[in-house]
Every structure is written in structure tokens, then in C-alpha cells.
Specification:
By secondary structure, the chain is mainly alpha-helical. The protein contains seven helices and no strands. The chain is about 65% helix and about 0% strand. The radius of gyration is 23 Å and the shape is extended.
Length: about 180
Amino acid sequence: MSAPNDPVHTRLEELLAAYGSRVRALLVGYGLDKHGIDPADVEQEVRIRLWHALERDRSGAFHASYVQRVVASTVIDALRRAQVRAAEPLPEEDDGTFDVELAPVAPERRAGDLQHMQGLQRCLAEIPERRRLPIALHLQGFSLQEIADIAGIPSAEAARKLVSRGLEGLKQRLRELGLGDFED
């Protein structure tokens, strides 16, 4: 974090002095302990997010509504992380056989799949460069934090916005080409 005589640190301390009790009251009100989440950990995450916001916008005024939104989004992220289930481990014994039986793919289906992939690649190439890499990584299964790290995006939230907007544009273009009917 920053040094105590740093203006960002000073503004953060002023912000926490003004809204710290409200932040704690909001966190208690959400009942995080019922989900196995320590409210103190979420409060620390709120402090970190506010600090980053102050670093980005040194002249901005952060009112109660902004602080409340930061608390709400941090709680939502904590609840999502708490709901993630651990992956089941693979069985220890490996006899070297697989039980997967694949039906042969008809040539028509294979050609249609190839056309869809080529259409997807064309549409992806039309997307602005800033959104193209995040979308490609998303389609490959990377997490938002991984996308942010790989693409040099400041945060997972910024990566989420780029992916979301880019996917909307991609779906729209695919619809125009008749290559998909997507539920929104």
C-alpha cells in the first residue's frame, strides 16, 4: 500500500473514517458468516478496491453511494467464490482404458461444423483488437482474472466488461450471417 504521508493514503483514511462504520454495518447485514465468509476479509477487500479507485481517480469524490456499490460488488464476488465447488479428484487406479464411445460423425455435420468455425473466426477477426484477445481467451475457458493478466487489463472487472461487450457484438454478427440463434 502507499506510505502514510501519501495523498492517496490520506484520502483513503478520510473515506474510511467517514464511511467505515457504514461499511461494517452493511457487511454484518449481508450475513456473510452464514456462508462461511469472514466479514473482516470482505472489509479488507473493500478497502483494497477503494484504494485502487483512489489511485485511478485522485481528484474524484467518492460518496456514500459509491462506497455502498463497492461493498455490494465485493460481497457478490465473495459469495460467488464461496459457491465454487472443489473439483473431484480423478480415481487413483488407472487401467488405461476409456469408456467413451463416440458415434461416427456424418460428413454433413463435419462440413457444417467447419463452416461454423470459419464463420466464427471471420466474425472474431472483425471485432476491435481491444476486445478480440479477451473474447478468444474467454472462449478457450480462461477465467476473468487470467484474461486480465494475459491481456494486460487492469482488473478482472474490466476484463468482464470487455468480454461481455465483445460477446454481444460477436453474437450479433453471427446472427447477421445466419450462423447462430442465441438466447440472451
